[in-house]
Amino acid sequence: MTAVSPAPVQEPTARAEAPLVLDTAPPRTLDFRALFSLWANLGVSLIGFTSAATVIGAKGSELSLAAAITATVVGTVIGTAMLGVAALIGARTGAPAMTVLRGLFGTKLSYIPSVLNIAQCIGWGVYELLVIAMGAQEVTGSQGWHWLFVLLAGVLTTVLTIWPLGSIAVLRKYVTIAVGVAMVYFTVQLVRQGVPNPGAGNWTGFLSATDAIIAISISFVPLAADYTRHARTAGSAFWATFSGYTLAQVWCYLLGVVALLQSDGDATRIFSSFTGVAAGWAFLLVLVIRETDQSFANVYSTAMSVQNLLPKVDRRLLTGGIGALVTVLALLIDQFTDSYYAFLGLIGSVFVPMFAVLAADYFLGSGRRGWNLNEDAPARWLMLLPWALGFATYQFIAPTAIDHWSGFWLDLQSRVGFVAQPWTSASLLSFLVAALATLAVQRRK
């Protein structure tokens, strides 16, 4: 398997499904429409609505609507361009996301990001089931039956992962249309009620909001190739990913901004804005059921990451076991603590500079000569250096709020006299440092 030539692929058939083990060639069944639908659905999420608070800012210091809209669009375009590149690499190689990293780091070293991605995907998978249960409770107007909603969401999630390509086909034919109708309905109903603008004229915090949106888009980078390895062409993989996710995330976050402002900035009341309109419960139910594609993506990509470690294990056994694990954890966890959010954020910051190393080496370095993606791919220890430098840059600029961990970076900032400025984007600067360090390493080889 090489970076320059696509991996051998199966001819598409009506019933083609994803391979059961890692060394089986993937069927190329996903066209532009299928991939566009997949990424458009992933770009709309209940978490996205509530996360609109990261764009608007704290109550009393809200961004203006113009600044919030601009930050959402700019951050999404930048982040989704990176996502599209990861999707392109997956389509060219025909390999899952973590298996692609065998070419970058070597097989054994690729286990490091694989384990991190497993932890990240399981964490977000659990969170998605809790969010689905919360949304279902809002629709039913009840605080009960939490366990039942979690269980139903977990079962549906696991079923989707057993037939992933079939699930994507269902998204294309039916779910995308239903979600589009629901989004149009809520947009019309909420906007007609008026859009408050408490931060009129305020652009302070614009770049930090943009950085947050970039990070949201990039969060799918470690998952992208798991799906676009089935793309019919590399071009369709890039453009479907870029256009589908960009359109959906911008729409989702801006609708969330409107709902949040109408809820007086209280993110815990944001779903009340949706159920408060005529027949809002029915359209919110569509979005709640559709949210299982988020948990599906996390569970399926966990299995793909595990297969990089255990390539001969049947993915159906993996997804079934992981789906059960995520469901049990969601049943045991009432709510996420701040430290757990911080832990997931810490892992997320690992993948921003790693993608920079991946892209720089693939397009400008050894990837042009062809990567070895087989089990005997030799370790490339030197490639850990630019990744580490990029990660350190990210944490130096925006330390993750974990006791002792953040204290180390804040103390380092103090020692060198560094004060974060509004333009110091942790995502972009860590990406730049990692990419430049990768090119420097390449020149010395």
Automatic annotation (TrEMBL):
A single MF term (Gene Ontology): cytosine transmembrane transporter activity
InterPro entries according to UniProt: CodB, Pur-cyt_permease
A Pfam family reported for this protein in Swiss-Prot or TrEMBL: Transp_cyt_pur
Membrane topology value: Multi-pass membrane protein
Subcellular location: Membrane
Family as reported in the entry's similarity comment: Belongs to the purine-cytosine permease (2.A.39) family.
Entry protein name: Hydroxymethylpyrimidine transporter CytX
Record gene name: cytX
